[in-house]
Design brief:
This protein has four helices and no strands. The chain has about 80 residues and is mainly α. It is rod-shaped, with a radius of gyration of 33 Å.
């Protein structure tokens, strides 16, 4: 290939670059549309979101400490109160 290109070669290169850029923009637009479609994201990840929501609810409701306190803590308090009196 020579160091200097003809005007026709330059025009052809510019046109090829335009076409590639146009195709890249279409792909980018499609990807952005897909990534910002939150309803589709929710549908695809519904099970994981349900698990995460259940875990968050568990933690917000007291988590493991609350569970153990409910299961074991009250019984201990009653026993202490009944043995002291």
């Amino acid at each position: 290939m020579s160091a200097t290109r003809t005007p026709e070669e330059i025009r052809a290169s510019i046109e090829q670059n335009r076409q590639e850029l146009g195709m890249s923009l279409v792909r980018l637009r499609d990807e952005v549309t897909e990534l910002t479609n939150w309803r589709a994201q929710v549908r695809r990840n519904e099970k994981n979101l349900q698990i995460a929501a259940a875990a968050a609810g568990f933690v917000l409701a007291g988590g493991i400490g609350g569970t153990f306190g409910t299961l074991f803590g009250r019984g201990r308090r009653k026993r202490r109160g009944s043995s002291a009196g």
